Amino acid sequence: MELYNLSISELKNKLSSGEITAKEINETFKKRISEVDEKIESFLELTDQIKDNEKNDNGLLANIPVAIKDNMSFTEGETTCASKILKGYNPPYNATVVNKLKESGANILGKTNMDEFAMGSSTENSAFQKTKNPWDINRVPGGSSGGSAAAVAAGEVPAALGSDTGGSIRQPAAFCGVVGLKPTYGLVSRYGLVAFASSLDQIGPFTRNVEDSALMMNAISGHDPKDSTSVNREVPDYTKFLNEDVEGMKIGIPKEYFDLDIDEEVEKNIRESIEKLKDAGAVVEEVDLLSAEYSLAAYYIIAPAEASSNLARYDGVRYGQRSEKADDIETMFKNTRSEGFGDEVKRRILLGTYALSSGYYDAFYLKAQKVRTLIKEDFERVFEDYDLLISPTSPSTAFELDSEQTPLEMYHQDIFTVPVNIAGLPAISIPSGFDSKGLPIGLQMIGPHFGEGKILQAAYTLEKILDLDLRPDNLEV
Amino acid sequence: MTKEINKEEVERICDLANLEVSEDEKEKFTEELGEILNYIEKLNELETENVRPTAYPVPLKNVLRKDEVGQSLNQKEALKNAPDKISNQFKVPSIMSEEE
Questions:
Q1: Does residue A146 contact residue A385 with C-beta atoms inside 8 Å?
Q2: What is the three-class DSSP state of A144?
Q3: Is A168 a catalytic residue?
Q4: Residue B52 C-alpha, separation from nearest chain A C-alpha, in angstroms
Q5: Residues of B with CB below 8 A from A341's CB?
């Protein structure tokens, strides 16, 4: 069996036993990328940087290849956020997570494709290329971290980093049949992550199994003085939660979520997986939660509002592209931004500017922030009695490329993932099965603040029960 | 909240956001933004009179550090990606017109 089918821990074992060498690992994955990426287009840029004097054979991820989403600052190559406006931008510093990966000995093989500035649910909003779903190349990998999800699913790398503001790790993980985790807000440093919505963004790992997810979390979590929103809190060893045990765990099933439009096969599969957890000893009960529609509405004020502020810096002055039609400063700003940003980015900047503008701030932004309090408190109330909540990650499986959905229809792809970011909670998406078209279905587990341990344990247990075969060699890529 | 957004509003916010959009795009955005704003109306179903707003999901306040000089970018690094520069400064087109 080809090495690219192995997990991080399997690779580590074979490395330490001497069965394989670091060089073989590097070559296997680079070969895999060269074989499949022309079709899948996960990568915007390859940056293999193994230098002998930088090798760290003792690190947690020593000699393990990884990929990172192109909105994370890396001094090698470009960081474009899949936008024309940042084409050519070479960061003068590394994101904290990039430094952590390097310190742990990982080999960063490249930057992955995404929706422009992380705005989208299909990776079709990239200014450069459309990534395909390795399970069906006529379908989307999800978004905005579609490149990272597809790269892991296809065995191009055993792990990749993505970012999640409204579901951008979890939804592509569900569409691509991989594990995607969004940590509690503040657990992983945002320093060097190009900001979209500062109160919602978090970086998290894509892996092919839950154990690897725990390993990646060990590598990237922790307080960072350079990120004033990162929490100063001891980080546990997440691998300690990898126990096959849900005996007595109280699992809540949000009634209002399941009342929404969900693809029949997806709902059936999720309910079957929930039953399996019940058979394994978990206590499963229906719970009442505020409708997810309120979270989505609040999100589509808060996120664009914060984005309109965060993207004001792209003005052609200090970095990135500058329009050639620039006789004075005003036209330089206008033309640079109008030429450099895609439609979805413009749409959200306009929405955000409107929500924050004089006369509307109270009605929109302030109202959304108050609703945010209600949503957060609602979750906290439920978590007093329950260990975790389960829902489908997405209402459907991967849809086709060029599906021509309206913006609002596309936003509804994130209906189950968005509430999690609004409340700042941790959540994981794990593969739960397949639909009749052979497309992966994702199950979402939501935990209380800093409850990564609980969701990892439950996810690990379910993964072992389901025992799905998700090896890249099964793909017809 | 207004249910409708008209083209003049779109033009106003384009100005505020330093974006220039074509007539066709203006029409399209007006329609799309209208649809989204309509959806957002549902927040009015929730009573928020005495609710405090949440800015950040973690209860952090006043995260400070000592006023000590630390690491920062040097000038060369900071200017590295400049679209245009003169010696140690970013160069931009004229900010003030002849009359000003």
A1: no
A2: coil
A3: yes
A4: 6
A5: 19
Domain range annotation of chain B: 7-45
The count of other CB atoms within 10 Å of the CB of residue A288 is 11
Out of B20, B33, B54, the one facing A338 most closely (by C-beta) is: B20
pLDDT in tens, A394-413: 999 999 999 999 988 989 99
Strands (E), A133-243: 159-164, 179-182, 202-207
Residue A24 lies in a domain: yes
pLDDT value at residue A339: 97
Query: Both ends of chain B: CA-CA distance in Å?
Result: 40
Task: Domain count for chain A, please give it.
Answer: 1
Structural domain including A207 reads 3-256+262-289+377-474
**Model-wide pTM > 0.80:** yes
CA dist., res. A350 & res. A397, Å (int): 30
We report the CATH number of the domain holding residue A148 as: 3.90.1300.10
Query: Which candidate in B23, B29, B46, B97 is best for mutational testing of the A interface (most A CBs within 10 A)?
Result: B46
Task: Identify the active-site residue in A42, A73, A144, A394.
Answer: A144
How confident is the model over A259-287, as pLDDT tens digits? 999 999 999 999 999 999 999 999 999 99
- A22 Cβ contact list (under 8 Å, min separation 6): A15, A50, A55, A57, A62, A63
The answer, yes or no, to whether residue A145 has pLDDT greater than 70, is yes
Asked whether the beta carbons of residue A341 and residue B18 sit closer than 8 angstroms, the reply is no
- Is residue A144 among the annotated active site residues? yes
Are A421 and A166 in contact by the 8 Å Cβ rule? The answer is yes
